[in-house]
Amino acid sequence: MTVSYSLEVANVRFYGFSRLLFRWKGSIYRLLYKEFLVFCGVYVFFSIFYRFLLTPKQQDLFERVALYCDQFTNSNFIPVLFVLGFYVTQAFTRWWGQYTSFPLPDNLMMVVSGNVHGADEKGRLLRRTLMRYANLSSVLILRSISTRVCKRFPTLEHVVEAGFMTTHELKNFESLHSDFNKYWMPLTWFSNLASRAREEGRVRDDIALRLLMDELNKYRTKCSLLFHYDWISIPLVYTQVVTIAVYSYFAFCVIGRQFLNPEKGYSGHKLDMYVPVFTLLQFFFYTGWLKVGELIINPFGEDDDDFETNQLIDRNIQVSMLAVDDMYQNLAPIVKDKHWNQRHFSIPYTLSTAAESHRPAFKGSTFDMRMSVEDLEIHQPKEAPANGQFLQPRTSVVDGFDDFLQKTNGSVNSETRVYLTDVLFHPNERDETDEHDTDAVSDREQQNALLPPEQKY
Prior knowledge:
Helix content is 59%, strand content 1%. It is mainly alpha-helical. Mean pLDDT is 86; it is low at 393-398 and 429-436.
């Protein structure tokens, strides 16, 4: 069962993530406790061996070996972080790709329900058979990559018993000899049956048939991707390199991180702590990281966080049959909605969410930005007329003009003040002046057109 904790971290709170540390199922403790106990046991064995079973001369030799091993564990001779980080990143990318490649029949069942017509028994049989073929293909591909599904359907007879395939279809399936996986055969049956439905008029035009084929190809592509993900793994050599790097690193730590006799004055060995706390934490982090990569490199197993393939099969066959059978032409009466006569209406809130209704709608980060008067003045190029233009802001500038002059403390020069006063308080006079000037120019142009050519100006 996939471990989900989304609800527990829906809100940020004190001690939020820390509560998850005490869960056992799906935890790193469950994955790592055996390796951790082995490491602690080996470390304790060498510690007792060094302290109580060796002679002083043998202890000197052991101490030189421990210092030599510690030299390599505290340097970059073994690049554990690099190889481990890159490996887990690639494994996670692969894990997410496999999840998004899982074939879901939702799009296909909608197209079948809307384009394969007929409320009679033959139409119902066509729709249900088409979706059964699609689900059969996903079952066949999951049998070949998922241990859970393979245990549920160990043979094709179990698939027939489950209702995904009939006995005649099983004979046709087995009669076609192929050395490769034949998960694609039910999709070919789907294609042939859709073509027959088009000939019988159940699929009314070629556009609808094309839509069926397009969705079928998308479904087939995802089945093929799952097969290839199972076929082509992360190269084995890289998995081996990462595993050897981590295990060899901590093999040296078992000896190199031993607490030596502080009376001998070795550098970094002034205290005898007995328990290597930081080495144990380092083992927990690095080996835990390796176990995470081991967990997600193939999510079709039976680990706690592997995909629930059997539940997905149950869900897919149920919803696809409901969509093409029970829901076919199953419409509620079309009536006017509750807000039919209301042009402006609001949706009610519960008491616990009522405060959200008072929040203003977001219109953009610059919508409420404050503007100065100089920001609202348009600058004209030199070749343009020198007359300035002024756009009035959304809020009332006239009412706050005196407040603005007081806040500027005389920083606005006299010419700008006269200009703003003229624009704000006498806009109609400026409009009338502009119209008068325009009419005068028009009259002069008409008089000029009536003069002889030698008198025109």
